[in-house]
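INTERNAL TRANSFER SHEET
From: sequence group
To: structure group
Subject: V-type proton ATPase subunit

Please process the attached sequence and return the structure record in the designated field. Keep the field labels unchanged so the import script can parse them.
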Amino acid sequence: MASVFPIWLYLVITAGLMTASALFVPKGPNQVTIRTALMLTFACCYLLWMITYMAQLHPMIAPMHSPSTEH
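Return from structure group:
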């Protein structure tokens, strides 16, 4: 059985990257836009990875084996 450790690990890494992007974006007229873009990018990348990982752990459709093809 697979572990949920990678899910939590990548969540912590993503939260750290989001925090860093909020703290280290230089001041300027587009600061809020850049922060928002970076944070949404990190969140979407994490969600894409997590959904793909979970879909591989628990597939909705199981492989079907027909008795005639087995030897």
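Handover comment: The mean pLDDT is 88. The chain is about 65% helix and 0% strand.
Transfer complete.
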